[in-house]
Design a protein that fits this description.
CATH architecture: Roll
Number of helices: 7
Distance between the termini: 22 Å
Strand content: 25-35%
Largest sheet: 7 strands, antiparallel
Shape: globular
Number of strands: 7
């Protein structure tokens, strides 16, 4: 398997559910909302903590916990919890091997937070390290975090490539026009000595 193909597959594993949202997802109209300006991330420390709980759950194959930390509307659009669990498990099984293994996925503090009514949306930069025969690939992506209780509990969607604006509006109708999802950067190969 070519390195770039393998990287693309692995980065898609963390957003495997997002790729499937294109299947017969109806367009949801943009809701009217009142919103407040960006809020400092220090007011939402649980976002980073719970994003990393999701990352660790996926890597430790605790798919039930991963589903608990995944944005419920995404799970619904995929076809329910059982189908989501099967897709996540299948994707991870396909990408992990002796020559290709995700060794870490770490999310950082939110960089862009918006409030819409009582909901809070955040973009969390995420770094993934993947062991390959040639060394370690380091890729940058991000998660979209959503809290319906002003930052106490969060659920997430991987915001890597595969999202277009219409899909954002389907998942987050009240916030899609204001979410600033950064483009995924190409992975960098760090050669081991």
């Amino acid at each position: 398997m070519k390195i770039l193909d393998a990287v693309s597959i692995t980065l898609l594993v963390m957003r495997v559910a997002c790729a499937n949202t294109t299947l017969a997802v109806a367009y949801a109209p943009l809701a009217q909302s009142t919103s407040t300006p960006s809020t400092p991330s220090k007011q939402y420390p649980n976002a980073k903590t719970q994003a990393n709980q999701l990352n660790n759950a996926v890597l430790s194959e605790d798919y039930e916990k991963a589903a608990d930390l995944t944005y419920p509307k995404l799970i619904q659009l995929i076809g329910g919890r059982a189908k989501y669990l099967a897709v996540l498990k299948g994707g991870m099984n396909e990408t992990q091997s002796d020559q290709f293994r995700i060794i870490s996925t770490v999310s950082d503090d939110p960089t862009d937070i918006i409030e819409v009514g009582s909901d809070v949306y955040a973009i969390l930069p995420t770094t993934m390290k993947i062991k390959v025969a040639e060394g370690v690939l380091v890729g940058q992506s991000s998660l979209i975090g959503v809290s319906n209780d002003r930052g106490k509990h969060w659920t997430f969607v991987d915001a890597g490539n595969g999202f277009n604006h219409k899909q954002l509006k389907t998942l987050f109708p009240a916030a899609a026009d204001r979410l600033k999802v950064p483009e995924r950067k190409p992975p960098v190969l760090l050669r081991t000595l």
